[in-house]
Amino acid sequence: MSFTLAIVGRPNVGKSTLFNRLVGKRLALVDDQPGVTRDLREGEARLGELRFTVIDTAGLEEATDESLQGRMRKLTERAVEMADACLFMIDARAGVLPADEIFADILRRKSAQVILGANKAEGRAGEGGYVEAWSLGLGDPIALSAEHGEGMFDLLQVLRPLVEAKGAEAAIIEEAAPETDVDVNEDDEADTSVRMPTADRPMQIAVVGRPNAGKSTLINKLLGEDRLLTGPEAGITRDAISLPFDWEGMPVRIFDTAGMRKKAKVQEKLERLSVADGLRAVKFAEVVVVLLDAAIPFEQQDLRIADLAEREGRAVVVAVNKWDVEDHKQEKLKELKESFERLLPQLRGAPLVTVSAKTGRGLDRLREAVERAYTVWNRRVTTAQLNRWLTGMLESHPPPAPGGRRIRLRYATQVKTRPPGFVVMCSYPDKLPESYKRYLVNGLRDAFDMPGTPIRLHFRGQGDKNPYKDRKKSKPSRLRKHLGKPSPKE
């Protein structure tokens, strides 16, 4: 097991900034507004020769009820219990506040190893707060500047004996695979098998949808624990949190994303950052689960989100949540399927499953749909099969002849997977109408069992094969001129 360090403290003391510095990426959202972080975010930290797991937590609040702040505090306290050590951060420029003293007392009881860090200690403005930190009775404070990287060597010196005591495994100097290690251009002509997810390279799934559709509740049910913050309030999730788990034998890393509202309604900078973080998760995912609310499915924003996933070339599964409160299930399901085919023709045949994140019903069907969508997304068709298919399509419905010139489709080949991409060599590719392109794409779906997955079909010209096209006109011979006979080309 890796050594785990939880970063805790009041809101806006710089926890997420330090987290980003330790993991070497801008994974956590950072803003001047306090209370940006709400969920627990884990990352693989690098500090000198040390490698360990770091947890970014929500700012500690004094609320202990079932309010949003109270639930955030419970989640942070859970992280403290999970971690091997806690880095308790205060704002050196603000000094030690009464809330800091309360939380310091809580940490003494809950965690055996507490490291005290006085952040924002650069310059003279932080000297007073750094001196005050001694009064908390948590040992020698470390003067830090998460933004500028000051104090990292002192933090390394404190962490080294703790990490080494945990075990040599945590201190192995190896380059960890990035969390979003998705090679969307991975392609090997000789390999027709589907790359199955492994523990080192799990399947990456992003759950997206409008606010309050139940994304975090669904992921908590899949994990079997309350790992993500949930509640009746819309827009609780802000960061795109990624969590690894084993989904009935299938290694998975699942991304919980912030709810995406219409662009016109997104006014605050923080919400724009949250949505951008969610869009980034979609770009790096392999399978995107678009979660709808059964009470108001296929709203305009749902359609935009599903279309975005298709344009990004991701395998798409549409899941309708809150199915447990639906009274007329058969009539509703028929209506959903009709709306899906009518409103999202570009995803024709994509899986549509009904689930209940609250009760867990339908999650087995969701897993089957995700695995099938992933398999189709990785599918490869041999060139021989493609050209037999192309011959049949041309015989059934030949391409048009704009301006009297017949468009000839000579042969087809698959150039990539993830999603499947094909190239057809033809004459006059720019004159081929969109309707005929759709005819071929739909034919590919039906012939090779690729429902719902994005298909990229490109047409390339081979040039004119007429050997006399650019040949200069020959001059008539002197003998023909003398005899008055025309040349063969005259």
Question: How would you explain this protein's 3D organization?
Answer:
It is a single chain. Mean pLDDT is 81; it is low at 168-192. The protein is elongated. It has 3 domains: 4-171, P-loop containing nucleotide triphosphate hydrolases (Rossmann fold); 203-377, P-loop containing nucleotide triphosphate hydrolases (Rossmann fold, 3-Layer(aba) Sandwich); 383-461, K homology (KH) domain (GMP Synthetase, Chain A, domain 3). The strands form 3 sheets. It has a 6-stranded mixed β-sheet. Strands 8-9-7-10-11-12 form a 6-stranded mixed β-sheet, with helices on both faces. Helix 4 (127-132) links the parallel strand 5 and strand 6 (142-143). The protein has 490 residues and is α/β, with parallel strands linked by helices. The protein has 13 helices and 15 strands.
Describe the secondary-structure layout.
Elements: E1 4-9, H1 15-23, E2 41-47, E3 50-56, H2 68-82, E4 85-91, H3 98-110, E5 114-119, H4 127-132, E6 142-143, H5 152-166, E7 203-209, H6 215-223, E8 241-247, E9 250-256, H7 269-284, E10 287-293, H8 300-311, E11 315-321, H9 329-343, E12 352-354, H10 363-377, H11 383-396, E13 409-416, E14 421-426, H12 434-447, E15 456-461, H13 478-483
Parallel strand pairs: 1-3, 1-4, 4-5, 5-6, 7-9, 7-10, 10-11, 11-12, 14-15
Antiparallel strand pairs: 2-3, 8-9, 13-14
